[in-house]
Amino acid sequence: MTTATAEDFQYLQGFLLDRSAIVLSEDKQYLVETRLLPVVQRHGVESITDLVRAIRRGDKTVETAVVDAMTTNETSWFRDAAPFDALRNLVLPELVASNVTRRRLAIWSAACSTGQELYSVAMLLDSEFSDLASWRVDLHGTDLSTTVVQRARTGSFTALEINRGLPATLLVRYFRREGAQFVIADSIRSRVRFELFNLARPWPPMQDYDVILLRNVLIYFDVETKRDVLERVRGRLRPGGFLLLGTAETTRGLVDGFRPIPVGATTVFRREES
Amino acid sequence: MTDLVSNETIAEITQTFWGAYLPDAGDLIPAVDLPAIEDVRGRVDIDGAWTGCVEVSCSMAVARKIASVMFAAEPSEIAEADVRDAVGELVNVVGGNIKSILPAPTSLSVPILDDGGEWRFAADLESEVLLAWAGEPIVVRVWRPEGTI
Amino acid sequence: MRALVVDDSRAMRSLLRQILLQLGIEVAEAAEGRAAIDLVEAGPVPELVLVDWHMPVMDGLELVTELRAHKEWRHMAIMMVTTESEHENMVRALLAGANEYLIKPFTADAVVEKLSLLGLHCATVPAGDSYGGATQP
Predict the structure, then answer these.
(1) Cα separation of B127 and A211, whole Å?
(2) Which of A25, B75, B92, C108 could form a disulfide with C131 if both were Cys (CB 3.0 to 4.6 A apart)?
(3) Dihedral, CA atoms, B26, B30, B32, B35, nearest 10 degrees?
(4) CB nearest B9 (choices: A38, A160, A179)
(5) How is domain A6-71 classified at the CATH fold level?
(6) Which domain holds residue C87?
(7) In terms of CA atoms, which chain C residue is nearest residue A218?
(8) Which residues 18-47 on chain B approach chain A with CB closer than 8 angstroms?
(9) Tell me, what's the ipTM?
(10) Contact C96/C7 with Cβ under 8 angstroms?
């Protein structure tokens, strides 16, 4: 039994909305099947219906596996290129100038997946912004999936992952081989921190940031959740700080207090001085 | 061998070939009690700080499936030479990735395909990993020259 | 845009050709380095050369070195596409003049991203991506 029944799908819609604020529209039945069949195999059960039963029973292992499978996306280094060009050419030079007396910089990758985005930022800072070497730089990554946060912390990647958008010069400069894996240099790994964090749930007390990367997350949320998350993001962004969203995402029509600034092929959203 | 390249790593490397080039073909999974049908086989030789060879064999159904994706044609339309060429690339990728984990420096040969002649070579079996796609076998073996410690 | 794929495996050349054609890139093929040099000399000169490492006659490292010895071909982008992924060897290929490095096996997405790193912008993004693109909800 490889298909999800209508009841399974309906239950999973509610479960994923509750657990991770993900809206699974009716046309996403194929997605449930392609993502969950490996989970079915791994857990030695017969069908997606069995997985649903296990979740109803309160089986935490299956719950976690299903959330992970439904939310984990392939991610690449310097994903989409344009946001990193914006960081390089506008965002970081501006912040280096405006924070020169504080000598502090804080960046949050708010849906960090297995860490490529935050490690890309760390490599960019190390290789092109040497002024920051003596600053206090906080690089934080968070994600709602336990599995990916644990993987991000290891800084260890397969050849398949290394192939995805990592420039060869950075590969040879910052990675060493450990068996079949490529492991990022300790000098980079020691500068980043990864934590479990659910954007759609209440947030714990946390610091303010100069840059928040919230890319390709809002697309999964309904309008209310989008607005709520963006408001809280604005609250954690220092005045003059920058929000970077995914290609298809915007603050427009959802939340005030951001000024869109086009840079190259993308747009960054700057928090207005209050 | 097991301390240099584990059977899990060998399986993972082979599965990565499958996942990258045949993502829609269904998973390649570890198998235990599957008869090893070795219709097509090839090997790459590794020489240097570590000397030995990596042999990959599979059933004709598996070989045709790989070739049909790489040559973008129906499995039934694939010529024998294309099947062997595609398996040669499988051997190259699996062997080359195993080489990268072994002590360096080593050199890697181009794939050598079994053309129906004498295939057995004087070597000791180090590792053997059996995988299955749709009930059809793929076997990866690592050999070292006879008497190598 | 025109690319030259250099690999001793016809299956691999075929796979790369499918990906590149979908991106609107014309493809020529050579089975080893010497034949590749002959093709480039005969012209037209490709903007991109994809180079396997282990090949008979002239291997990939020699080919890169040879291509870079010709000043008139300096604008050509060269990407290694190989299983060879020892740190030292990747450095050797880059020092010889390769601009990028793609480790086999790879997905079609990885090819597209590497071309973008090389500043080669493709006509189209592969539709339907039969080589394992990310599935986005």
Answers:
(1) 50
(2) C108
(3) 50
(4) A179
(5) Chemotaxis Receptor Methyltransferase Cher; domain 1 (1.10.155)
(6) 2-117
(7) C137
(8) 19-20, 27, 29
(9) 0.90
(10) no
Residue C124 resides in a domain = no
> Angle CA(A157)–CA(C90)–CA(C102) in degrees, nearest 5?
60
Backbone dihedral angles phi then psi of residue B140, each to the nearest 5 degrees: -115, 125
| Half-sphere exposure at residue B145, Cβ-oriented, CA atoms within 13 angstroms | 7
Helix (H) or strand (E) holding B85, with range, is: helix B80-101
CB contact under 8 A, C103 and A162: yes
Total CB pairs under 8 A between chain A and C: 64
Subunits next to C (3 or more Cβ pairs <8 Å) are A, B
Could you tell me the pTM of the whole model? 0.85
The residue type of A183 is V
Q: Which CATH superfamily groups domain B7-145?
A: CheC-like (3.40.1550.10)
- Give the C-alpha separation, B101 to A177, whole Å: 8
Query: CA of A179: which chain B residue's CA is closest?
Result: B101
Helix (H) or strand (E) holding B106: strand B106-108
Within 5-64 of B, beta carbons closer than 8 Å to C belong to 16-17, 19-21, 23-24
pLDDT score, position C130: 35
Convert the pLDDT of each residue in A23-78 to its tens digit.
888 877 877 887 888 788 778 888 999 999 999 999 988 888 888 788 766 678 88
CATH number at C61 reads 3.40.50.2300
Per CB-CB distance under 8 Å, the chain A contacts of C101 are 168, 171
- Read off the pLDDT of residues A107-131 as tens digits, 9 standing for 90 and up: 999 999 899 999 999 999 999 999 8
Best C88, C99, C100, C113 residue to mutate vs chain A (most A CBs within 10 Å): C113
Chain C residues with CB-CB distance to B92 below 8 A: 9, 54, 83, 104
The verdict on residue C134 lying in a domain is: no
Let me know: does B31 contact B132? Beta carbons within 8 Å. yes
Domain locations in chain A? Answer: 6-71, 82-271
Query: Distance between CA atoms of C1 and C20, rounded to whole angstroms?
Result: 10
C83 found inside a domain: yes
In a domain, C22, yes or no: yes
Q: Where are the alpha helices (DSSP H) in chain C?
A: 10-22, 33-42, 60-68, 87-96, 108-117
How far is the CA of A33 from the CAs of A74, A217, B30, in angstroms?
17, 21, 22
CATH code given to domain A82-271: 3.40.50.150
Total domains in chain C come to 1
Nearest to C83 among B69, B70, B92 (CB): B92
Are the beta carbons of B108 and C18 separated by less than 8 Å?
A: no
Residue in B90, B93, B94 to test binding to C, most C beta-carbons within 10 Å: B93
